[in-house]
Specification:
Rossmann fold; five-stranded parallel beta sheet; 5 strands; alpha/beta; 5 helices; 148 residues
């Protein structure tokens, strides 16, 4: 069984209420439920955490070193300036996929640059909830490739 950490960054606790024209009307609980269902269908264990605090996300990445095969992370606004989160991703031995529900490159100019993406397996954005599921699929495919 593959073990994947799923991290939701700042303000994602307001998903469904915050800018629904950008992020949709599904709540974070809906997103987490869909992630759990997808993981169960793919014989995958997920541990999900949302935090508005940079240090909590870093701690979660560090703590997962002992159990995770990969991670899917939506760093929210930390994407654009958190070198501490970037360094945490670079430090872990497992692949991390950066995901975003909105098409970040099509939004405000400052959102088009990620300081985290260069140390990630890849970045998926613009597909709403599906961005998370595609991220999990990417981790699963990478871990299968590593086992082959």
């Amino acid at each position: 069984m593959t073990h994947i950490l799923v991290l939701h960054g700042p303000n994602l606790n307001l998903t469904g209420r915050r800018e629904p024209e950008v992020y949709g009307r599904q709540t974070l609980a809906d997103v987490d439920e869909a992630i759990g269902d997808f993981a169960a269908e793919h014989d995958c264990d997920v541990r999900i955490l949302q935090s508005n605090h940079e240090g909590a996300l870093i701690d979660a990445l560090h703590d997962a070193i002992d159990w995770a095969d990969g991670a899917v992370m939506n760093p929210g606004a930390f994407t654009h300036y958190s070198y501490a989160l970037r360094d945490a991703v670079a430090a872990v031995p497992y692949p991390v996929v950066e995901v975003h529900m909105s098409a970040v490159a099509a939004r405000e100019r400052f959102r088009s640059r990620s300081v985290i993406a260069p140390v990630c397996l890849g970045q998926i954005s613009g597909f709403g909830l599906l961005s998370y599921l595609l991220g999990i699929e990417a981790v699963l495919m990478r871990t299968e490739d590593d086992e082959a």
